[in-house]
Structure formats: C-alpha cells, structure tokens
C-alpha cells in the first residue's frame, strides 16, 4: 500500500514536471525553427525519401553538381530524414572549412558509419574532440609528418648498411610500450587497430586511384605523356631507378598529378562533416541546422569554369605552370585533400607515393594501348560508385621496357 502511494506520487511528480517543462520545450523548438528559418534552397522533396529521387541515374557528385547549378552553391537536400547541405563553390567551401571550420569539424555518427569504423575510434570518422585531436596528432607527428618522411628516406639511403626501417606497426607498438608517448588517450589494441585500418583505408585506394587516372589521362594526351617521359628520363639520365631526391626536379610530373587530382578528385565529396553549432550555423546568409550532414563537392569545384576557365574540363597540366594554385588547403578552388581541421593528414606521404609510382612507370616503360584499341581519345573514363571515384573499367595498357627495373624494385 505504502509502495503504491509512493509510485503514485512519483508518477504525479513526473506529470507535473512534464507540464512545467512543456513551455520550455516549446520555446526551444520555436527558437530552433526561428533560428533555421532561412534554410538553403534545394530541389523539391517527397515524403519519406526526401530528395533521393533527384540523385538517381548519375553518380552522387555529378548529380549534386547539376542540382547546384539550378539551386545554388549552398544547397539543401534530404536523404530520407537526414538534412544534407552541399557546398559547391570556392566561397561555400571556404565558409565550411575555414570561416566556420570549428562548427563543421565533426563527422556524422550514423549507425552505418559507427558500424564500419569501429565506432569512430580511429581518425577519419572520429567525432571532433580530445580523443580525435590526440590520435590525429599521433598520426601527423609520428606516422605521416615530415620527420617520419625524413627518417624513412634516411633508412632507405642506408639500405644494406644494417639500418632497419620501422614500419607503421613497429612505430605504434614502440609508442605503446613507452607508455603512449604523452598521448592523452590510452593507446590500447582497439585504438591501434582502428588507426591502422584508417590509414590503410584512407591512404591506399586514394593514391592507387589517382595513379590510374593519371596514366589514363596521359594515354589520352600523348603530348603530355611524351613531355613527362622526357622530363623523367632527362632528370634521371644514367640512373637505374627513380630516387626520391629527384622528385622535386620533376616539375611537369607534379603538374600532371595536380591536374589529375583536379579532374578526378579521389574523394569527390570529401568526407562528410556535421554541423555541431546549436541551433544552426549561418553560412552565406543561410541557416545550416545542427545535426545536418555537410558535404563539399570538391570535384565540382575543381571542374568549375568560373574558376578554371572555359577549358575547365580538359586535361591540361600546363595550367599549373608557376604553381599559382595549390591544394594544401588555402586555395578553395582546388581542395582535393579538403581543408581546415579535418584536412587530409596524408598529403606528404600520398604525394611522395604517387610521384615515385608515376615517375617509375614513366622512367622504366613506354606505354601503349592494347591491339585493337587504337584511338586513345576513346578510352573509357567512366567512374564507379563509391566514396572514392575509382575507374569503372580496368585500365589495360601494354608496357615496353626502356630501362629495366632493378630486381629489388
Ligand atoms: C591521393 C591521395 C589522397 C587523397 C586525394 C586524400 C583525400 C582525403 C580527403 C578529401 C580527406 C577528407 C578531408 C576533409 O574532410 O576535409 C582525407 C582525410 C584523411 N586522409 Fe587522405 N587522401 C589521400 C591520401 C592519404 C594518405 C596516403 C593517408 C595516410 C596514409 C591519408 C589519411 C587520411 C586520414 C587519416 C584522414 C582523416 C582526417 C580526419 O578526419 O581528421 N590520406 N583524405
């Protein structure tokens, strides 16, 4: 009986609290609606599926580019229930990744993303916060940064003299053994596994895809192929293989890689961000609501005639002569690696791998299309669906040896 009375009075209090709190909740909802009254424009939506029907029939980055041409550089879509804001111009990208970088520094945590990324315990999909900051710092200083790059080069130069190069796992295990190297989060096995998975996931397909596109574009543009091959063979004349020290001299090759990343951004919509400013963040005069997913269409920005001129969709490495525009996060018309806090930390390593790979392919071999495929301009350049824009069909080329690669390359 006493228990029943007790329960009744608890229920009573709960109802009372709900009634008292109701005006507060309503006021908050109203404030949020008011704060978001100027949502970005977007195409018409259907119940349940939102804007999904506008994305059918084309790859997402292409469909979104076409929609943005009609609805604006900052556009609101709804993928089912989820509001998705797409930035498709240098100005919009600057707002997201510089002006309001902190507001958009976290990643969405949908059930799928949590499942696929070990609940974001690595770097790429970790929510913004102390843990992400600490793990990213570890990656930059110990695994991917300039110091590590120098150590790798020193070890490579001393190959054969007994100097052993530490691989990624060796470095992480050493830091773990030394007590985490001052890291603010425990470097347990789960974290190590997530970091390694992230680095391999983020680093291998991106660089391999870019290399494939570079070769495909060079085959389609024989003058550019000749020019980069002549450069590599002139700079490396008399050598038996490509050395990393020669890379800074391969200026045209560097332009070829830049032009490839411009036309074939390996991660065309970058990695998704999420608005964490409550109740919304004001971008280019519009309100981006808290919780909205934010995508930057790096591919559309890279191909936009407003920034790149009427030949924006053509492969012309010479446009980078004089290195006027760079991809290190300050020129928002060219953001294949993103910008701001969540920018790719693997640029230096990625570039070194791509430059070594492409230089070696061009130094050691001449390249031709297989018999029967005589017109290079007919080469299939279609992309496959995915987070990375891979080639849809495999690239088949015939190599003819010019400088035989040494046996250990
Ligand atoms: C062609 C080569 C590469 C391209 C085009 C590329 C592109 C990108 C892009 C677009 C992002 C998202 C940036 C953003 O959200 O603003 C990213 C993030 C990331 N990339 Fe790369 N990447 C490349 C190579 C690499 C390599 C070689 C590594 C390391 C081995 C790497 C590690 C990462 C990591 C860990 C992140 C997540 C950063 C974070 O969320 O804090 N990437 N990359």
TrEMBL record:
Keywords: Heme, Iron, Membrane, Metal-binding, Monooxygenase, Oxidoreductase, Transmembrane, Transmembrane helix
InterPro entries, alphabetized: Cyt_P450, Cyt_P450_CS, Cyt_P450_E_grp-IV, Cyt_P450_sf
Annotated transmembrane regions: 12-29
CC cofactor: heme
Residues bound to heme: 344
Any GO MF annotation of the entry: monooxygenase activity
Membership in a protein family: Belongs to the cytochrome P450 family.
PANTHER family listed in its UniProt record: CYTOCHROME P450 71A9-LIKE ISOFORM X1 (PTHR47955:SF19), CYTOCHROME P450 FAMILY 71 PROTEIN (PTHR47955)
Protein name: Uncharacterized protein
Species in which this protein is naturally found: Eleusine coracana subsp. coracana
Lineage, uppermost ranks: Eukaryota, Viridiplantae, Streptophyta, Embryophyta, Tracheophyta
């Amino acid at each position: 009986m006493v228990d029943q009375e007790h329960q009744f009075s608890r229920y009573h209090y709960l109802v009372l609290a709900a009634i008292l709190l109701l005006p507060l909740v309503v006021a908050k909802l109203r404030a949020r609606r008011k704060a978001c009254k100027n949502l970005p424009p977007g195409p018409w939506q259907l119940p349940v599926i939102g804007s999904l029907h506008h994305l059918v029939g084309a790859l997402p980055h292409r469909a979104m580019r076409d929609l943005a041409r009609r609805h604006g550089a900052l556009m609101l879509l709804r993928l089912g229930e989820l509001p998705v804001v797409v930035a498709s111009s240098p100005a919009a990208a600057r707002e997201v990744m510089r002006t309001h970088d902190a507001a958009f520094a976290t990643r969405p945590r949908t059930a799928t993303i949590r499942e696929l990324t070990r609940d974001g315990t690595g770097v790429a999909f970790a929510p913004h916060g102390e843990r992400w900051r600490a793990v990213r710092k570890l990656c930059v200083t110990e695994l991917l940064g300039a110091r590590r790059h120098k150590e790798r080069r020193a070890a490579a130069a001393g190959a054969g003299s007994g100097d052993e190069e530490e691989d990624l796992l060796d470095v992480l295990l050493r830091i773990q053994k030394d007590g985490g190297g001052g890291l603010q989060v425990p470097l347990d096995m789960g974290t190590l596994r997530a970091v390694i998975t992230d680095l391999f996931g983020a680093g291998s397909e991106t660089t391999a895809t870019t290399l494939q596109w570079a070769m495909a574009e060079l085959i389609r543009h024989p003058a550019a192929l000749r020019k980069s091959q002549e450069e590599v063979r002139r700079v490396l004349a008399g050598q038996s293989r490509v050395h990393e020290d020669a890379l800074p001299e391969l200026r045209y090759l560097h332009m070829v890689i830049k032009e490839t990343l411009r036309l074939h951004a390996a991660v065309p919509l970058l990695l998704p961000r999420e608005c964490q400013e409550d109740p919304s963040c004001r971008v280019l005069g519009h309100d981006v609501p808290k919780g909205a997913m934010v995508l930057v269409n790096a591919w559309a920005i890279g191909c936009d005639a407003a920034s790149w001129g009427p030949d924006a969709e053509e492969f012309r490495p010479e446009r980078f002569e004089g290195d006027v525009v760079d991809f290190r996060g300050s020129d928002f018309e060219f953001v294949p690696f993103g910008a701001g806090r969540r920018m790719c930390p693997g640029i230096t390593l990625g570039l070194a791998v791509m430059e070594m790979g492409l230089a070696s392919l061009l130094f050691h071999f001449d390249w031709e299309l297989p018999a029967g495929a005589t017109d290079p301009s007919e080469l299939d350049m279609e992309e496959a669906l995915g987070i990375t824009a891979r080639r849809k069909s495999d690239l088949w080329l015939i190599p003819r040896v010019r400088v035989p690669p040494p046996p250990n390359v």
